[in-house]
Write a structure and sequence with these properties.
247 residues, alpha/beta, Rossmann fold, OB fold (Dihydrolipoamide Acetyltransferase, E2P), five-stranded parallel β-sheet, five-stranded antiparallel β-sheet, 26% helix, elongated
Length: 247
């Protein structure tokens, strides 16, 4: 079990990082999420050092580099930032990696391997390698029924999955078929770079997304092709995650 804390003041960045860590399938326990320099110093002085720290450089009350002046941090730190001018400074601390936002999964994986190669406590004292990341076999095809026939459908032919009272598969050719899969289960077996959970009713192939925008009401919406029968609303949080995903 890797005990970690996240020092970050942007909710969307925290959510994105947690999503990536969950994708890694490593045993990571997040001990705390802290948003300021002052609270970080207070937490670090009051608790046992974590195995690993994820730390944004720009926080709500200043730069996180100030934390090192007030407290001796022994834990390795993976810095995350939208800026690239602090690389030299962070490696004068206990920083082991420097990730630019939006964080890419492959870059995060390499950072975690670097963390392990420094012979730090990880995964019950086993050294982490690229093979330590569980390889998920994502769904390649679905079997759908049309009349008395069963038809194999390749996953890349799917535009989106949507739920009314049951879940349907909508293909790029406009046809819809019922499926017995729940959206929650589909979310686990679909390749996450290709399919995005829009809301509680829809998982969309990123290639079906034509536009997304903030409406005059302040709500956020999504346009897909082929069109969905209802207007697709997306939360502000998912809107910004999607924006990072498609950037």
């Amino acid at each position: 079990m890797i005990k970690t804390i996240i020092i970050e003041d942007e909710t969307l960045s925290v959510t994105h990082l947690i999503d990536l860590l969950e994708k890694s399938n490593l045993e990571i326990k997040i001990e705390a999420i802290i948003s300021s320099v002052a609270d970080s110093i207070k937490w670090l002085k009051s608790n046992f050092p974590p195995d690993l720290i994820f730390m944004d450089i720009h926080l709500s009350d200043g730069k996180s580099l100030e934390i090192f002046k007030e407290h001796k941090i022994l834990s390795p730190v993976i810095f995350t930032t939208a800026y690239d001018e602090y690389a030299i400074q962070v490696f004068k601390t206990s920083g082991i990696e420097y990730l630019l936002k939006p964080i890419d999964y492959e870059c995060l994986k390499e950072a975690l391997i670097t963390f392990s190669e420094n012979k730090l406590i990880i995964n019950n004292n086993h050294i982490l390698t690229a093979n330590s990341f569980k390889q998920i076999e994502y769904k390649k095809r679905f079997l759908v029924k049309e009349g008395k026939e069963f038809i194999p459908v390749k996953t890349e032919e799917v535009a989106y999955f949507y739920r009314t009272e049951i879940v349907f598969i909508k293909l790029f050719n406009g046809k819809s078929y019922m499926t017995n899969y729940s959206l929650n289960h589909l979310e686990k077996i679909l390749e996450p770079h290709s399919f995005f959970r829009v809301n509680r009713q829809i998982i969309a192939n990123v290639n079906t997304i034509k536009s997304f925008f903030k409406g005059s009401s302040g709500n956020f919406f999504l346009n897909v092709s082929p069109m969905h029968s209802e207007k697709i609303q997306i939360s502000q949080e998912r809107y910004y995650i999607l924006k990072n995903l498609l950037s």
